[in-house]
Amino acid sequence: MDIDKLFTKSDLIPAIVTDTDGVVLMMAYMNKESLTKTIETRQTWFFSRSRNELWNKGATSGHIQEVAEIYSDCDDDTLLVKVKQTGSACHTGEYSCFFNKVI
Amino acid sequence: MDIDKLFTKSDLIPAIVTDTDGVVLMMAYMNKESLTKTIETRQTWFFSRSRNELWNKGATSGHIQEVAEIYSDCDDDTLLVKVKQTGSACHTGEYSCFFNKVI
Question: Measured between alpha carbons, how far is A55 from A52 in angstroms, rounded to an integer?
């Protein structure tokens, strides 16, 4: 796939990350550069909106994500990234970031 | 949970929708009103950024989503909505919107 078409509407695209069993781990944003690095290195790279820089998930914690597959959605404005998660995805130590029950 | 805290950073929050087996179906945005309606009706309501209005998933297609559980993430700025999907989640007829393989 030509990844340029994913960034026609916006420079940033939300990326849903699941493990290879399908557990939803986290959501973060990618720009074209971080998606390119993700594809090249087979590890997840995101763009931090607050720090305005790329970050490699697990670079400091060791909790890296090895990329198995990436899909885009029907209108090419959201990504689904399937990974093999080392350790926990969440900085709190929880395996998944989605642990606050709303209902 | 007091849902007000989900909308302190932004009026819109991304909502990842999976079925109750964990298959990622789609991603759309909720504002406080659509999340409130989702909780009250136990069907998914989203906010359309292009049409600037609320929409009830399945209202025209019949492909409604019955809400089983909702979680927020560690920093309360993304939702995970687990649903029982009637028919297909994607307007193309695919069960999930994530069918374009990037890698």
Answer: 10
Residue pLDDT, tens place only, B42-69: 999 999 999 999 999 999 999 999 999 9
CB contact under 8 A, B71 and A3: no
Q: ipTM of this model?
A: 0.96
Task: Name the phi and psi angles at A85, rounded to 5.
Answer: -85, 125
Structure tokens at A37: 């690095």
- Taking CA atoms, A9 is separated from A31, A38, A62, B37, in Å, by 12, 20, 33, 29
Task: Return residues 5-24 of A near B (CB < 8 Å).
Answer: 6, 14, 16, 18, 21-24
Q: Which of B12, B69, B73, B101 to mutate against chain A (most A CBs within 10 Å)?
A: B73
